[in-house]
Amino acid sequence: MLNWGVIGCGVIANTFANGLACLDSGKLIACASKSMQRAHAWAESQKSEHNINKVYNSYEALLADEDIDAVYVANTHNFHYESVKLCLQHHKHVLCEKPITLNAKQATELYTLARQNNCFLMEAVWTRFLPAIRMLQKVLSDNTIGEVLSLRADFSINPKLEPSHRLRNKALAGGALLDLGIYPITFSFIVFGEAPENIQSSAVMDSTGVDERSFYLFEYSDGRRASLSSGYSHAAPTEALIAGSSGYIRVPHFLGAQEFTVYVEGQEPQTYSFPFNANEDFSFEIQHMHDCIAQGLQQSPILPQDESIQVMETMDTVRAQWGLRYSEE
Fold first, then answer.
1. Do residue 140 and residue 266 come from a single domain?
2. Which of 114, 133, 210, 322 has the fewest C-beta atoms under 10 angstroms from its C-beta?
């Protein structure tokens, strides 16, 4: 049984707590926020599923607690690097919400520190651990649709956000790319199994200085392509289309995929379905981390540290093409 603490008591921490409550292999015993009032309120909100009897108003105090084995880092992007580093310095295993850092240099430093301190560190990209995605990778590796030639994927939302909202706030490392675009980019790694050879991108910039909508064209060897996009100011279907030499695959809501349909020339379409309820969203990645730690692993075989860094390098290249940098870099 792994004892968990949470750093950052916001919305995404709720999703983690819900996922952990679905499992018997870990329990949530502590939380920390820079606001004691916020930390107490969040602990109280979780009492139907968790007995959080340790509430801290500093991250250092939580990390000094010897009862805590692992920490979920759930604060805003700009704080990930320093928070994860602090956890590792206290020899805690860490699951950090995506993106793990702002850039590949920071990510590389943290993964190196994790190995040095014999800690398990994983980026929380829940998509990669879903049963439907694991089956999709098998279908692709079996060449069911022949050679994969192209991918189209978009993740966009259209809420009405104030300039201070974290998605629009440059001081909080906001922007569509790091929060939303990481999903179609991750999906391209899932589909092609490698980083692109060439990257072309463009962005519509918000008045706050971050990308409001962004578009990425990836080129691979043998003419393979991925056309990807994300944004927080327009409505679009969240889906992926994988085209092969003898068929294609549609993946509705690919980032939280519960099913996909394979269309092969001359055959009836086949749908693979792996349903789960909303509370289980993060349970698959959490259970995977529990299993890895139990096996004495320092990194995930599903999301190896090198691939996590490659995704960050890809996003570094994209942002560099727009000249977008954050103050922490």
1. yes
2. 322
Where the chain has pLDDT below 70, the residues are: none
Q: What angle do CA 119, 86, 181 make, to 5 degrees?
A: 85
The pLDDT value recorded for residue 10 is: 92
Structural contact between residues 154 and 238, judged by C-beta atoms closer than 8 angstroms? yes
Same domain, 122 and 137: no
- Domain boundary among the residues 126, 148, 172 is at 126
For residue 16, what are the contacts with CB-CB under 8 A and spacing of at least 6? 6, 72, 74, 95, 97, 124, 282, 286
Residues 243, 218 share a domain: yes
Instruction: Show the CA angle centred on residue 22, arms to residues 120 and 281, nearest 5°.
Output: 75
pLDDT of residue 284: 98
70-73 vs 270-273, strand pairing mode: unpaired
Copy the structure tokens of residue 230.
């994300």
pLDDT of residue 200: 98
CATH code of 114's domain: 3.40.50.720
Q: How far is CA 25 from CA 17, 30, 52, 66, in A?
A: 13, 16, 16, 19
Q: Where is the domain boundary, 126, 159, 191?
A: 126
The CATH number for 171's domain is 3.30.360.10
pLDDT in tens, 61-103: 999 999 999 999 999 999 999 999 999 999 999 999 999 999 9
Helix (H) or strand (E) holding 84: helix 77-89
- Whether residues 87 and 165 share a domain: the answer is no
Q: Which of 140, 206, 133, 149 is closest to 176 using CA atoms?
A: 206
